[in-house]
Specification:
Layout: E1 2-3, E2 12-15, E3 18-28, E4 36-43, E5 49-55, E6 59-62, E7 65-76, E8 79-84, E9 90-93, E10 109-115, E11 120-125, E12 129-137, E13 150-155, E14 160-164, E15 172-176, E16 181-186
Antiparallel strand pairs: 1-6, 2-3, 2-6, 3-4, 4-5, 7-8, 7-10, 8-9, 10-11, 12-13, 12-15, 13-14, 15-16
């Protein structure tokens, strides 16, 4: 058990029969009435964010969540297969628990979040940026830079994203896995 005084970013609490991580919180003491805490809670299972207000001193149940490094191996009919980087045990995770499965390639390092008491997988987080090679894109037209134009590009994982016109086939780029957008070209 914890109270609102123990709130900090990243704390995982049990709320509405689900696990939520606190992403933001603010203690508010109005001139009139009791103090309260405004929070933004992110569901560990669905990724949805909700705003909630707790009265000051409110008791909540905390959950122990562990982040373990894993390596992506392959995908089969049962799901995505990962190997623990420390114990070499393999687990299978369903696609809906992965934040950006379209950007995973063999050997990719990821963090898997586990509910420590139940040993169940909550989510799989890729790094914020991954480096991928473009396998196909139309050539850019010289002089077509009057606006912030972009074109479609197919990555080595099969995902399609929008990239600037100067990006060519076989270029290596950084992709933001949180927004599925082009980051920068890698030299």
């Amino acid at each position: 058990m914890a109270s609102t005084a123990d709130f900090k970013n990243g704390l995982v609490i049990e709320y509405n029969n689900d696990l939520y991580a606190i992403t933001e919180f603010q203690h508010v003491k109005p001139g009139k009435g009791p103090a309260f805490v405004r929070t933004k809670l992110k569901s560990m299972r669905t990724g949805k964010v909700l705003d909630n207000t707790f009265t000051s001193g409110h008791k909540v149940v905390t959950a122990r969540v562990e982040k373990r490094p894993h390596q992506y191996l392959y995908k089969d009919d049962f799901g995505y297969n990962f190997m623990n980087s420390e114990t070499f045990e393999q687990i299978v995770v369903q696609e809906e628990l992965i934040n950006a499965p379209q950007f995973m390639k063999d050997g990719q390092e990821v963090d898997i979040f586990f509910h420590a008491e139940q040993e169940s997988v909550l989510s799989v987080e890729l790094p914020a940026y991954v480096e991928l090679v473009i396998t196909y894109t139309e050539p850019g037209i010289k002089g077509d830079t009057a606006t912030n134009a972009s074109k479609a590009a197919t990555l080595e994982t099969g995902a399609i994203i929008q990239v600037p016109l100067f990006i060519n086939q076989d270029d290596k780029i950084k992709v933001d896995t949180r927004t599925s957008s082009y980051g920068e070209r890698v030299k």
